[in-house]
Amino acid sequence: MAAATATLSPPRTTPPTYHRIVSPTLTIPTDPLQSIPVGLLACQRDPLLSELATTAVSCRESQSPTVPSNGREGKKKKTPPTPSAPLVEVILHDTIIFPEGGGQPSDVGILTSADGELWDVVEAKRHGGHAVHYVRLKPQQNVDQALKAFSPGALVGVSLGEEGSKRRLDHASMHTSQHLLSAVLENKLDIPTLAWSITTHPGPGYVEIPRGLSPDEIAFVQDECNKLVFEGRSVHVEVEELDAEGRVYTGTSVGIPQDYTGGVKRTVIIDGIDRNPCCGTHAPTIHNLQLFLFPHTETLSRSTATSVRLYFLSGPRMLAHLTSSHTLLTATAGIMSCGAPSVPERVQQVVDERKKATKRVEDLEAELAASIASELASTTSGQGRAIVLHKHRTDDSTNALGFLSAITTAFSTKIKEGVPFLLVLSSSPSAQTGTSTTVVLIFGSDDKKVKEVGDALKAKLNVKGGGKGSRWSGKFTGVWKEAKEGQAVASALESVQF
Ligand SMILES: [Zn+2]
After folding, report:
1. What does the pLDDT read at residue 39?
2. Exposure check for the chain: N or C terminus, fewer CB within 10 A?
3. CA–centroid distance for 89 within its chain
4. What domains does the chain contain, in order, with CATH numbers?
5. How far is the CA of 152 from the centre of ligand 1 (A)?
6. What is the pLDDT of residues 221-273, one digit of tens each?
7. How far is the CA of 282 from the centre of ligand 1 (A)?
8. How far is the CA of 91 from the centre of ligand 1 (A)?
């Protein structure tokens, strides 16, 4: 059984064949005062390394309190709150903290100086060809102390720490899966990858492709990828000098950044499947990188062309997705008092019932509005005399004004021809607070009088509203009391004479 377990587990150490320098003239700088260029960093030579002893090359206080965005301002990100603690920029001889680049986000980690002090690396960026570590000082640390700890040649320990190790596993799983997915799309369906992103945990990554895929095609691509995963194809990296004339690689999906001056061309190879220029920290094998594709594509419309995004998950992010999906489904099943598989059917049933109930409420409201209207139309205080009255209601309705309006519509069909009238209808919710809204609707046979009463309510009750012709509507905020607001309406109506 031990052997079987071993073959199903990813290797604990990176095989020596992972990192291959394929140029006879390319060497990794050994001078401890020189920084190894991005492309040849320890994190790129050995993605499973979680600790490294190295030396400091330079250190300076950062000019800005926030880490610069490497010229990616075009993508509108939420501006993080400006942290107050100072940042220092540390360049090391070598590092296992991957600097953001080529679509892969930065690692985080911890530096240990010779005096045993621990320093938090909140981000690493590539500046030209070199990795810069951004160290956020703790309250008890100061810039002078940092400049001393990272003076040229000083010994420095680099580690990913728990958080950094989780990030590494996540980024490696997602990035290697992206290469696999793009390769299968290209090889099996002749679909190029136009752009991609592994985003940040726990959101899905995506590849952008020129056309949508049918659910069958998506299932096919997922199957093809996972067959290769099951085979456990190996991954390795080949590095050589960048061609003098060919700075920018003209590969299918990924190019080398224009400002990259490391002078190293790095190609990531999935055995027998894919060769792609890339600087990322790839898993040494696609073993265990089960790939989940979202069973639909999302169409993006841009002014120039239309493309779609195919979303994917693998590794820790896929597990996080399973956990959150399961939690949502279980919670919904609990609310619906049914088993998880019955959730869609039960939700559909509730939606259908709700539609029927809404229809029933509408029918009953129409009937009630007609009944109230009849009652109002017959409330003449004398033969041929005008109808001038206020009717207040309590309605917990999402559209109380609509209901009052339905009463006026019914009223106009019931009132005897030629009888002058002016109605003030108001409606409050059953539980009133200082922020409750009472709606008011004025309806009358004389447009001028409707406006006069509306103006009076505006002045006396601070009702906000307006109207045109025979109708005027407004809103009153606060607690509507018969003894106060009701009386105010009554006194506004006293002045109405027909
Ligand atoms: Zn890549």
Report:
1. 92
2. N
3. 30
4. 25-65+84-164 (2.40.30.130), 167-334 (3.30.980.10), 354-494 (3.10.310.40)
5. 32
6. 999 999 999 999 999 999 998 864 444 444 433 455 555 555 789 999 999 99
7. 8
8. 24
